[in-house]
Amino acid sequence: MATQPDIKEGSEPKSNGKAPVQDVPKTEAAVATTQSSPWPKRLWKKSGLSVDLLSTMFKGACPPVIALALYQATPFANHFGTIGYLVGIMSVLSFAILPRAKFFQTMIFNVIGVCVGAAIALLTVYCSVQARLHTTFAPATVSGGPVPGAAVASYNSSASAVCAIWLFVNIFVSNSLRFTRPQLQLPVIIYSIFANVSSTYAPQFDTMTQGIDFVEKLLEGFLSGFAIAAVVNVFVFPKSSRDVVFKEAVAYMKAIQRVLKAQNAYLQSLEREDMFRSNGKGAADATPQGVSTAKAFKAALAALTALHGKLRADLTFAKREVDYGHLGPKELDELFQRFRGILLPLIGMGSVVDIFNRIADHRGWKVSDDEDDAKATAERLAERERKDKEVRQWNEVMRTLHEPFELMSAAMNDGLQHASYVLGLTKRPKAMEPNAAGDLEAGKAEGPGQETRNLESSLP
Asked: Which residue of 142, 252, 341, 357 is 20 to 30 Å from 43, comparing CA positions?
């Protein structure tokens, strides 16, 4: 039987750079809490749904449902004829779930695009009618059309060729504009739908009166879909761009706190781990704590960077929006500048992981210990001693930086929490009152910014 080596009192076990793996059993209270939670709550948590997500889903489903419900009315169906389905499509493509400022900016471009499309459609109809008049000598056979007042005539190849040319030019020019101006992507899609529908029916009209009636009904259908989406955006779970920015600002502060926590965990792992060692191969090799904390640190930085880009895009619309509040466009812009001033040093700290990886790659130190033992040569042993010496030096440096980094992180966390209270992004916690015996120490500890408020209240 294998016996464990005796460890003398006051001595520390030797470390070979690998973190000891300990089984941490769950406490009885944690197990009981997990088992005692009701199944609807567990199912809700497992589904990943939230109140905001459900409200957004409901809001996005309202416009097409309203459009289809309107189409069940006889006057509505008789007015639009066979093109009434476009009302529902336009109500969906208007994206009523967007924040208010972004929605109305997109809506303005949509309306302009549809109006330009209607003008081009009338020109297409005029060219088609003229081509039919110059190539048809017998009277055309007229039958029912797609909408009331827009009867269609028999097929004419010249009119179809003219409309095909116009459709090609429309699609080519609009898609060229779409790729040069990405912000016009949605209006160009709507314009393309208008051009396709109008160019398809245009060869069938033999008079301009029929073509004008059709384009009018088509324009009314598109605008009706826009109107339904606008009403839903304003009155059903209204959401402003400022609210979106405020929520993202709170999430930004929490993301910074997560980065600071991951940074402290990574730096503390460098006090005892081999920062140049990669993840070992094989089932016997556990992932070093330094590797896992480094990955967590980089993941937290990546999430913060992604949130920074989203906040920058939404901030433009929030500054343009008209609203009542205590934070104006200048304050929002200043808040973003402060966020960027915090992000850059954090990204710089993230480069520490890359620096260690570069050094390990350059010096060939990412070989696992098992592989190194199998190829033990004099040169390898000398290189290992050099590596161990440098690892011990870095461990000592990180131990000296432990307390300063802890104090700095705590101060930054308190400062972020205090800023969220002062800016009104989060609600202040209710201060605990002293007990009946007047014991102030039994109350809640003062939060961030409490000393400033106490000083202000003491001033005359």
From this structure: 252
